[in-house]
Amino acid sequence: MAGAFVSGADYVNAQRQRAKLVAEVADVMKTADILTFPTARCPARKIGEDSMATGFQPFFNRAFNVTGNPALSICDGFSADGLPLALQIGGRPFEDALVLKVGHALEKGLGTRQRRPAFAC
Length: 121
Fold this sequence. Notes:
Layout: H1 8-28, E1 34-38, H2 62-67, E2 71-78, E3 84-91, H3 96-110
């Protein structure tokens, strides 16, 4: 429904900006096999909390959503409250296997795969 309120001109301009972003990421990826950065600005929310309720968008995943590059988010640690923190790993187009290998190696090395936050019942 939100798309119904986007004008044709705005859509075309957005596609132009998208093409620029795709080109910029491709240029960076000429010298980097993988890009990593936080998945979110803050730890995961407690079960039942809506991170979008306030309009605050805590996530950094739009870049890869827009470019179409393969990306993976993994737990890379925990906050002082024991809530998961996340790292995003992105790669070149069609290099999904490399992104998955890097994610697997990081999870294994960090020891975060088996750890879970404590739940209060």
